[in-house]
Specification:
The protein is α+β, with helices and mostly antiparallel strands. The chain has four helices and 16 strands. The protein has a four-stranded antiparallel sheet, with no helix packed on it. A four-stranded antiparallel sheet has the order 5-6-7-8, with no helix packed on it. The chain has a four-stranded antiparallel sheet with strand order 9-10-11-12, with no helix packed on it. Strand 11 and strand 12 form a beta hairpin. The termini are far apart. The mean pLDDT is 96.
């Protein structure tokens, strides 16, 4: 088996990303296709219905593939900031929208873009001009509510505190609670590993590795963002 940066499955397909090549396998491990449409392609995700694969590059592109025809459908350049594009993303529960956290003005400025998945055109963008609030990861719960993990910068331009918030297209970030540095760092590191499928290569470059944290068995653990938000609300964390 190749040393994949990411290796994920939806039960029907397995996808491995080396950075240069995207490999698609069937449930028995037979290779179905390989693609080299974008460089630095590390982060794959299946659409909710399971017949579309999106692969995000750290170089400000994402590629969209049909798993029915094993072909490229779209290649989108979503920013002029080339590099540092390693933040989170997710489809909406119904698959109609794709949410991508992306660097827009510079490598330190994160925004949340919303794409219409019928043609992957951008239909809205949030926080593009706000350099103090930096979203990192976005995911939904079982009912389709979206939650965002991120951090805020202080007046000196560096980390001030983490946050967990709800997100909606109508209101943007709402019901935002502060996180300690330790809580923020744990969830940030875990979400990085989770989206990669907990590959050995991802573990070698994980923040957990540099912190000396034992990652054995982490692939069997779950730390959903909605539970973190509910915990903060119950504990009456300071709202921001």
């Amino acid at each position: 088996m190749r040393k994949f940066w990411s290796y994920i499955s939806n039960g029907k397909y397995f996808v491995g990303c080396t950075g240069e090549t995207v490999y698609i396998y069937d449930a028995n491990g037979g290779e179905l296709a390989r693609f080299k449409d974008i460089k630095y392609a590390y982060h794959p995700i299946f659409s909710p219905e399971g017949n579309t694969l999106l692969v995000k590059s750290t170089g400000a592109y994402f590629a969209v593939y049909s798993l029915d025809t094993l072909s490229l459908k779209h290649k989108i350049r979503y920013s002029n900031v080339d590099g540092s594009q390693d933040d989170g993303y997710t489809f909406s529960l119904d698959g109609a929208h794709f949410y991508n956290i992306e660097r827009q003005n510079n490598s330190c400025n994160s925004a949340i873009s919303v794409y219409d998945t019928s043609n992957f055109s951008r239909i809205n963008i949030y926080l593009a001009e706000d350099e103090d609030i930096n979203p990192d990861f976005i995911e939904y719960d079982k009912t389709g509510n979206l939650f965002v993990l991120g951090f805020c910068r202080g007046e000196n331009g560096v980390f001030c505190h983490g946050f967990i918030a709800k997100f909606s297209e109508a209101q943007g970030l709402t019901d935002t609670y502060k996180l300690s540095y330790d809580d923020y760092r744990f969830y940030h590191n875990f979400k990085n590993l989770e989206r990669s499928g907990f590959t050995d290569k991802a573990k070698q470059w994980s923040g957990f590795f540099y912190d000396g944290v034992d990652m054995t068995g982490m692939e069997n653990q779950k730390y959903p963002l909605f539970e973190l938000w509910e915990k903060c609300k119950a504990n009456q964390n300071k709202e921001i």
